Amino acid sequence: MRPTVHDVAEAAGVSLATVDRVLNRRAGVRSETIERVETAIARLGYVRDVAAANLAKSRVYRFAFIVPEGPNSFMRGLEREIELSGLRSRLERTDIRIIKVPPFDGAALAAALNGLETADLSGVALVAAGSPAVIAALERLHRRGVEIVTLVSDIEVVSRSHYVGIDNVAAGRTAAGLLGRFVGGRAGTIALVVGSMAVRDHVERCDGFRAVIAAEYPGLDVLPPLEGRDDARTAGRLLRDTLAARDDIVGLYSVGAGNRGVIEALRDRSASLPHIAVVAHELTDHARQALADGTFDAVINQDAGHEVRSAIRVLKAKVDGLPVIDAQETIRIEIYLRDNVP
Predict the structure, then answer these.
(1) Which of 166, 194, 239, 335 has the fewest Cβ atoms within 10 angstroms?
(2) What is the largest CA-CA distance in the chain?
(3) Fold (CATH) for 56-165+304-331
(4) Residue 91: per-residue pLDDT
């Protein structure tokens, strides 16, 4: 027979109410009493039925997802996955709210965080943009018992419980290895198109990329990043100007969104000019077409659906005081060429 909370209370010499407070990590229990209860739990092999406990208490997980607004195709795909997960999660006593803020705007993100009503809020998942105001807002939520998960782009603060996304340094290193091979021994320069160097995922991708190019491809120089703000028109204009000013560009790493503008700028080049090898991020409709017609050589992708489902699982585990299954929540880097596009 499986041990019950009654068995734990008897073994620890405490009341059922005390066991409940320890299991739910509520205040008002002395440290030596907590130790007695936890020792009894370990000795008896008691396993808490979290689902039954939540059902008995009519508990509902309330989560807020904060994502950038605008035309970024990957973020819109992420938003769709959140909406779908929200519909499914209602059957699992989970309520998910989506809040959109301007991209790369730390002040707007901080205001959205500070505007959250925390009375019945279980957790927050956000695409992070680091700033003192954002960090202060996250610390406030943390002090009020709200679990915090960063999504896609990380920000390392005490209040953050977990990061869900690819290893962006490894993604940048992967892009460099691919691009170095695609260039095929030619010497020249590599152009970088980023969204913003104010967000950690883009910085980490650039750092990983530069490290590999410097160590393994001495004939290639990496230009300063062009910050397109994940806007197709801006990214396209900046790249056109750079291509017009230089004739030594042999490769391009498109780090963020705005790929439609990048594609248009590359297609506007004369067909008689040498091919520029391109590695980009996220398998959007435009990226698929660019792979198909040879404008892009490779696309590095992350599974938005996996990220959303992982964020929900992690938030629930943190709320319930359960361990996170790292192998299940690892977001893997996917590489697509023209030959293996699904």
Answers:
(1) 335
(2) 85
(3) Rossmann fold (3.40.50)
(4) 64
